[in-house]
Specification:
Elements: H1 3-23, H2 38-64, E1 94-96, E2 101-103
Antiparallel strand pairs: 1-2
Length: 112
């Protein structure tokens, strides 16, 4: 193999490696991949934020009603919330009155 061909192939490998490292975070992963895309991450963050807002509104409701929680999330509107948020993936949040916890209909949990 000639020296010029070796240098050319080595240069090509280096360029391809650099392109991979620059582009790898920009590409949506294939289905079944463990890594989430930036859009999927945004949905999870928004859903977690919605759940925290709802749980804060439930806590505010309890303070205003001698420790009693609302019977349903709709009881928070309009005094504690302007409107009930929905999961970005669609669906209304589920409220467990006994625990005072809000969960996502799509299984998104609140991130630590």
């Amino acid at each position: 193999m000639s020296r010029g061909l070796t240098i050319g192939l080595l240069s090509l490998v280096i360029v391809l490696a650099l392109m991979y490292y620059l582009v790898r975070d920009q590409v949506t992963p294939l289905a079944g991949s463990r890594e989430a895309s930036p859009i999927q991450n945004a949905v999870l963050v928004k859903c977690a934020a919605n759940q925290r807002v709802l749980e804060s509104a439930v806590a505010s409701f309890r303070l205003a009603h001698q420790g009693e929680g609302p019977f349903a999330l709709r009881d928070l509107v309009p005094r504690h919330l302007a409107a009930l948020p929905e999961c970005p993936d669609g669906g209304a949040y589920v409220y467990d009155r006994e625990a005072g916890a809000v969960s996502c209909p799509n299984g998104h949990g609140i991130m630590p």
